[in-house]
Specification:
28% of the residues lie in helices and 25% in strands. The protein is an alpha/beta fold. The longest helix is centred in the middle third of the chain and has 14 residues.
């Protein structure tokens, strides 16, 4: 089968389209014929090389996918061949105390498709049967593929971790990325007010169309935290949602109200930041990390997506053969929404970039 693979670490230029062996469905697994697969910053980190992670080469990249079940391994009872599904990229052992509690993303062996095992930028992928759920009927395969990692991460950050409530205000940095846009959509569904930041007028205008109550251009605003406090009448935001890390962490601490919450899931601007501990204890700020989500988080997300007919914000769809171009677009930060690869059976995957744009 055809797949986007790496044989060495580096940048997007190391990604090749090759023929690799077809996956087999082991006990408890299904093989999904991938119709579409979405890109995430994780893919770039995998390509660059993650410390302590070893791959068998050629290694198939990619975490997100939607498609059709093509085969089932022994002992799989609750799925069926031909079923349209969306794939949860999170991998867990299923046996530890955290999995027993239903907190799979806290599993001691937690991993991700495309990182811990061969990924989704391929015509077929084998995954545990518990990692597939019915595709929301109103979504195309391309739209469904854009959901898992970004929307599941944002869903857990805002609901399970930060417990965002109707009427509260959330600061969302870097509108344009997948998690940030997903968080904006989810915050709106929850009845919260969102303050979006970006250095792009176009992205801030799009954020306003998606429901952001306020926008801050951080290229023109010297003190983003002060502006967030001004917008909230000096009170501060209830929640700061961070995917960037080092560059925005001090802003988070300075932006939230007393008793506010900061929740972080990524470090695209760096992993090390100073923290004013006096502000943390004096203002009783809760600092929370968040990674992906549990299977229950994923189920709840998909139920909400189906009930509200939510559609993820899409940037562009590339054919699988142009995976390198898609990764380069993401690396440059040019996207507004999810970049997706059309794979087997995908109509959009056969279109040119010009026709899609």
């Amino acid at each position: 089968m055809k797949a986007a693979v790496i044989r060495e670490h580096g940048g997007p230029e190391t990604v090749r389209i090759e023929q690799v062996s077809e996956p087999e469905a082991k006990p408890g697994e299904v093989v999904v014929e991938v119709r579409a697969a979405a890109l995430n910053h994780l893919d770039l980190w995998v390509i660059e090389g993650r410390p302590g992670t070893k791959h068998t080469y050629p290694h198939v990249v990619g975490s997100d996918a939607a498609g059709v079940i093509a085969a089932m391994g022994p002992d799989v009872r609750d799925r069926s061949v031909g079923e349209e599904v969306v794939v949860n990229p999170g991998l867990s052992c299923g046996a530890c105390e955290f999995c027993a509690r239903g907190e799979q993303s806290e599993c001691v062996d937690f991993g991700l498709l495309g990182l811990s095992r061969p990924g989704t930028f391929a015509e077929r992928v084998a995954v545990p049967a518990g990692n597939v759920c019915p595709k929301p009927a109103h979504l195309s395969f391309e739209e469904a593929a854009a959901l898992p990692l970004a929307h599941l991460t944002a869903w857990r950050m805002l609901t399970t971790r930060a417990d965002l409530r109707p009427g509260e205000t959330v600061l969302i940095h870097g509108i344009g990325g997948g998690v940030a846009l997903a968080a904006l959509q989810i915050a709106s569904l929850l009845g919260a007010r969102a303050i979006a930041t970006s250095s792009s007028d176009e992205k801030l205008e799009q954020a306003a169309r998606l429901g952001a109550a306020h926008a801050i251009d951080y290229s023109r605003t010297k003190d983003v935290a002060a502006e967030a406090r001004r917008i909230t009448g000096g009170r501060g935001v209830d929640v700061a949602l961070d995917t960037a890390g080092a560059a925005t962490w001090p802003i988070d601490i300075a932006s939230v109200r007393r008793g506010g919450r900061v929740v972080i899931c990524g470090v695209t601007t760096g992993p090390t930041a100073e923290t004013d501990l006096r502000a943390v204890y004096w203002n009783q700020i809760s600092l929370m990390g968040s990674t992906m989500g549990s299977r229950e988080d994923f189920r709840s997300l998909l139920e909400t997506v189906s009930a509200t007919r939510l559609k993820p914000v899409m940037d562009r769809v590339f054919p699988l053969d142009q995976a390198r171009d898609a990764l380069e677009r993401m690396a440059k930060g040019e996207q507004m929404g999810k970049i997706v690869l059309g794979v087997s059976g995908s109509i959009r995957g056969r279109l040119s970039q010009e026709e899609i744009a």
